[in-house]
Amino acid sequence: MVDISRVRATWTGFPGAPGVSTFYFASVTDADLNGIAGFFNNLASRLPGDVHIQVAGDGDTLDEATGTLTGSWTGTAPGPTVGADGGGYSAPSGATVRWLTTFIHGGHRVNGRTFIVPFSGGSFATDGTLIPAAITQLQGAAAAFLAVAPANFQVWSRPRDATPAWTDVHGVTHAARAGVAGQAFSDSAFSVPEQAVLLPPRADRPCGGNLPPGAGVRGTPKASNRTASAASALRNVVGGGEKAARTQRANSRWSSIASAETGNGIMRTIADVTFGGGSNASGRTSNSDSMS
What we know:
globular; disordered C terminus; 15 strands; 5-stranded mixed β-sheet; alpha+beta; 8-stranded antiparallel β-sheet; 15% helix
């Protein structure tokens, strides 16, 4: 049995808060905690002034194969990150950092994501994509973070339950799928897409759709490709049109981990997201099958 340490950073102060970003480490140290805080501090100038992010000084350890809680860890919590941008912003809109590994597990590449939501309105171009200066700043923050704990930081591919063969409503039979044990992998690189992300509110998720913070999914639904309405909504917000509440309603289709990267400049993504008082929220880390 191999344990991994789960670290949570809580986002507060903005409409729809709280939120949480989750990171995994082979064995967390105070240097790792300071590295997470440094990552957010390096982005503070592009975080709305309402935003406060606090990295926890304690947390849980998990069995990487099963996801079962096995114990806890204790460290020293770093000081909070406080957003410094005083301009307008769309509460469910932001950016993402992709954490890249070289591994394949359970038939999928193991990559993670951290969502930086909300992000300052001035970080977006008129077409809804991130401006070059914002991308450069995100890249610098990610590089500095990986330099602190290049081997200790992990992307966790969660365990997947076995599923029996089944027949859909069209009479098509789908083969049984074997279960896959979870496994954590060291992160080696990162990327920053120019597309914005739109994290809809909790109301867009079905009852019982709550995922553990930072976790992947067991049997991930296919990603939603319905990004056109979300792109239009975000552009309206950035350009001073419809309000964020309209943006949040732009697309209510559920996906436990949904992402679509298109030329429209928007990725509509739902991953461990809660707006309106749940335990999970924006600023999360995830990927198509795994999360860090």
